[in-house]
Structures are given as structure tokens and as C-alpha cells.
Amino acid sequence: MKAIIYTSVGGSDVLELTELPVPEPGPGEVRVRVTISGVNATDWKCRQFGHVRGELLYPVVVPHHDGSGVIDAVGVGVDPARAGQRVWLWDAAWRRPGGTAAEYVVVPQRQAVPLPPDVSYEIGASVGLPAVAAHACLLAGRDAPDRLGPGALAGRRVLVVGGTGTLGHAAIQLAVWSGAEVVATASSPDQERRVRAAGAQHVVDYRAATAAADVRAVAAAGVDLIVQVAASAYAETDLEVLATGGTVAVYATEGRGQVTLPTAVLMGRNVRYQFVLGTTLPPAAKDVAVGDVAAAVGAGALDVGDASGLPLLRFPLERTRDAHDAVQAGSAGKVLVDVATF
To answer: The Enoyl reductase (ER) domain covers which part of the protein (predicted)?
Structure first.
């Protein structure tokens, strides 16, 4: 099978297209013929900085956690009826050498989630890690519900900073699906169009001098939850717009990733910070997230493409280097690698 691999850490030039044996599913596993592979920031960071202390966990790595395709073989203990099922994939490369940047991938059956017949492979390859991490962010608040779904966040105000990114986009859509009132940030007319297309009811420019006042104009008592992409850059503004007892859920680092906070102010207002990394969430939390994300996908609440505010940037498998570079450069949209056509 054709596959993208790397055998050492480094820039995108360490990625190479090669031929590998088609893997066989073991007990409890399924093999998926990959249609589309989704690329996330985690993928290029693992490639460039290694898995643990600058080292790779495996001598040969096929990258990418997310994807979509069709199950074509099952292992012992898996219902044979799953063969031929359309699925979306998550965590394919987490603590495993083989990700979705290949014509075939083998994963535990729980990581191949049925994709409804009316849902595109593009959506399937785009949810995965961004939606699972967004789910964790949205449930990080005080007195949060156990699950997301219609009405679960009713009466809550959520501020999504970085709503044009893949996780921010998923956070907006999941929050709106769950009944929250969503404020999203934008710093250009195109960004405003995109976050409104995702479902945000209010938009503010978080870089403006009036940002805090603009948020307070639509949430006088402050927002209950901030889904934050740049915690150190916006720490001061976050505290100005966060309600007493509110939560900042941080899912990314920027610059040196150092956040300086006024301890006494945080204590006095009972504010909490929750840092979120989708791949290291506890298995039980991942299962809950995947279940809720699958429900949102089935309900049509998670969508991608320009009309929904998340343009798609597509590359063929042999241009996976370019796909990694696009994600690393902060491309506006979801980066996908086309692996096969059914």
C-alpha cells in the first residue's frame, strides 16, 4: 500500500511516500481503507519535536490521527457485519505507529465510528481530534453537564477565541447545538463571516482596545466559559470578561506558552483554568466525547466547508509535506489529504 512515513524528527522534508505491507487487523481491531486523512497541529508537532523528549516511539511512523473511509476487514471478536461500513477515525496514531496517511490503517474497533450515509467523508475526516478536544473544553466549566446535546448548555454564555480554527469551529458548533449563547472573536470581515456561518450569535474583535467592553455589551455579567487559543496573549482580557466562578479552557500554546496570572484576583472570583489536550484525555472522557460528537454528526450539527465557516484545503497523498506546512503556517481552514477515491 502507499503510505507517508517518517523515521526521524524534523521538518516536513522528513516525510516520504513509500510502499508498506497492507496491515492485518488483530483481535478487536478493524482495517479501514482510508478515503481522506485529516491533518492537525498535533501531527506536525509530533513529527518535528518527537513523541517523548524529542524521540520517536517507533522506528517508522505513519502520521495523522483523524480520517474517514470504509472498513474492509475485521479481526477476531469484531462483528463481521462491520465490513463495508463507512466510518470516521480518531486517535489512529496515538501510541500506535500507523496513522491515516496511508491507503489502509488498523485501529481498535471503538476508534472507527459509523459515518451516516448522508454525511460526507470530508466531515468524517475533520471531526476527530478537534471535536473531541472542543467537547472537553465545553465541559470544563463549573457545574457543567455530563454530556453535550440539545439543551445541555442552555442559559450559558460561551466565548470562543480563535473560532476560525478547526477546534474553535467545532467548539462553536457543539456549543450552539447544546443551547449555549456563543460569542466568537474575529479580526477581519472574512473571519466574522466564518464564525457567524459556524453559528456564533455575537462577534467581537479581541484585539481591539474595546474588546472587553464589547463582550460585556452582550454578556453584562460576563461569560461563563472561555474556550481559549492564546492564554498568555489574552490573559488580562479574559479576566475582564469572565463571570465570577467562570472557567478558561485552554487548548493551545503560543509563543513560550507562559501565563502570568493575578492569584488573589482569581481566588477572590473563584475562577478556574483548565488545560486541554485531546490525545491525553482519559479513555472514559474520550468515549463520552466520541459518543456526543457522533450524535452531533448524525444530527447535522457539525459541518465543514466554506458555507459553514471552515474552508477545506486539499492535497493528494504525495503532497503531504505541503499539507503539514499549510497547517504549521496557520492556514485558514481544515487541511485534508486525499488518499483514495471510492
So the answer is: 10-337
